[in-house]
């Protein structure tokens, strides 16, 4: 199914404006690059679609509160319109292993489920993901990732993507709803280029998704972080001690700043404000100076938040070199919070001759399957309905987003993924923006002397 070239419209015929991102600067796709890609892919293996009213749905990557609301919002919209809804278990894990020579091994109840009204009602408030999830990535084979359109016509590099197409053809799927993070977005983009009608719903607790102002699960996650920070604040004040809390945020500081604003941390440090390089000893000195400054006002305690993504900006001699199966630095091997707290304690001992009561802890990962907030339920449900609308109207190759009043907006994949490098665009916290300024204005500051 080809994507319509005319302006997208809602079911009522109203034109859907393109989403505005990054301080209302519209991101225009590189049409010349896309034309080149389509030319290269002219001979690629393409999806052989069907007109059956049957839609597939999957959730890929780490879970996030509100995921079931997306599933419910989409599935109910399709069921009400007379569609059959297939939920694929564990993201792409089973799809990428589909064997076209033995298709009957792909079994209902094991690899997929037909979702009915009883499956998708009364689930929007639930934590977890009813169709489960995994980090299976069909765009990676033997740790080699798709990097350019030529890889998509290479049967060895794209074998898992082709398996996905085979499985969906076998199942008679007209279109696919993809729910996931940036890797899942790239997979949706590749499948779209190979002819599969697909719509993507963005998912990340980190809230760093380009093209949408807030992602579902973010506010639930920072609420749980706030509750934890509240306890650590009480502990710190009661015992005259300090805590260094390491929070999620591989690339950006949205999570750390949001949790710090809500939880009233005395300092919150995200990757954006630290530049391209972070020296652990320099950062320890900065926080040590904060400790000394607070003591002038009789405050011998405090909670400092740091983003885990700071580890990626450490110099080679300070960062771990072990990576996970996705090629990302294993933050758990860095012991960043512990090392930072120890360095601060050492500076304090050297300077004052006394021991500083300072400890570290990691906060955040237990929030991924938490019961979602009302906002995340509403946002997730709206994104799910948006996925239905886009597929119904033939708007394949778009991510579902929202604007003011949660009005549904579309963002073309080409605006989210660099057509030359095939890398997704991230939405960093703008350090000149009001959100960052708010966070900094709420940190501890030396009182102005009259």
Structure description:
The chain is of the alpha/beta class and 450 residues long. Helices cover 33% and strands 14% of the residues. A hairpin with a 5-residue loop joins β12 (398-402) and β13. α2 packs parallel to α10 (374-392) and α7 crosses α12. The termini are far apart. Residues 1-26 have low confidence and may be disordered.
Number of domains: 2
Biggest β-sheet: strands ordered side by side in the sheet:
3-2-1-6-7-12-13
- Strand pairing plus helix content: what structural class? alpha/beta
Outline, from the CA principal axes? Answer: elongated
Largest sheet: 7 strands, mixed
Range of strand content: 5-15%
Run of helices and strands:
HEHEEHEEHEHEHEHEHEHEHEEHH
**Oligomeric form of this entry?**
single chain
Output the keywords.
12 helices; Rossmann fold; 450 residues; 4-stranded parallel beta sheet; alpha/beta; 14% strand; 7-stranded mixed beta sheet
Could you give a short description of this structure?
The chain is α/β, with parallel strands linked by helices. Helices cover 33% and strands 14% of the residues. The chain is built from twelve helices and 13 strands.
């Amino acid at each position: 199914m080809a994507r319509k070239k005319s302006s997208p419209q809602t079911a009522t015929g109203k034109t859907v404006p393109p989403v505005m991102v990054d301080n209302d600067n519209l991101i225009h796709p590189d049409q010349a690059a896309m034309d080149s890609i389509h030319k290269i892919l002219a001979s690629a293996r393409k999806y052989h679609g069907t007109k059956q009213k049957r839609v597939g749905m999957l959730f890929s990557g780490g879970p996030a509160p509100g995921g079931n609301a997306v599933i419910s919002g989409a599935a109910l919209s399709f069921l009400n319109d007379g569609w059959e809804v297939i939920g694929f278990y564990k993201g792409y894990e089973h799809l990428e292993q589909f064997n076209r020579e033995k298709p009957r091994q792909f079994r209902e109840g094991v690899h997929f489920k037909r979702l009915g009204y009883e499956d998708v009602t009364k689930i929007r408030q639930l934590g977890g993901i009813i169709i489960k999830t995994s980090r299976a990535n069909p765009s990676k084979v033997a740790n080699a990732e798709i990097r350019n359109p030529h890889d998509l016509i290479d049967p060895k590099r794209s074998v898992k993507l082709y398996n996905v197409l085979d499985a969906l053809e076998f199942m008679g799927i007209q279109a696919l709803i993809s729910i996931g993070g940036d890797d899942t977005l790239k997979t949706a983009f590749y499948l779209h280029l190979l002819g599969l009608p697909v719509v993507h719903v963005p998912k990340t607790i980190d809230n760093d998704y380009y093209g949408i102002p807030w992602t579902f699960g973010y506010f639930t996650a920072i609420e749980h972080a706030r509750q934890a920070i509240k306890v650590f604040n009480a502990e710190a004040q009661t015992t005259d001690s300090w805590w260094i809390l390491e929070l999620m945020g591989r690339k950006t500081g949205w999570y750390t700043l949001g949790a710090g604003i809500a939880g009233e941390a005395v300092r919150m440090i995200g990757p954006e404000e630290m530049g391209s390089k972070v020296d652990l000893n320099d950062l320890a000195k900065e926080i040590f100076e904060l400790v000394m400054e607070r003591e002038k006002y009789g405050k011998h305690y405090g909670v400092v938040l740091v983003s885990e993504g700071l580890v990626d900006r450490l110099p080679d001699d300070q960062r771990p070199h072990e990576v996970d199966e996705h090629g990302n630095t294993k933050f758990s091997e860095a012991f960043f919070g512990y090392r930072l707290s120890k360095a601060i304690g050492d500076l304090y001992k050297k300077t004052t001759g006394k021991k500083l009561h300072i400890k570290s802890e990691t906060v955040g990962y237990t929030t991924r399957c938490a019961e979602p907030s009302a906002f995340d339920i509403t946002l997730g449900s709206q994104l799910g309905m948006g996925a239905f609308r886009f597929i119904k109207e033939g708007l394949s190759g778009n991510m579902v987003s929202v604007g003011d009043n949660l009005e549904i907006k579309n963002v073309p994949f080409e605006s989210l993924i660099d057509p030359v490098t095939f890398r997704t665009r991230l939405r960093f916290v703008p350090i000149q923006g009001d959100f960052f300024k708010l966070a900094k204005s709420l940190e501890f500051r030396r009182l102005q002397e009259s």
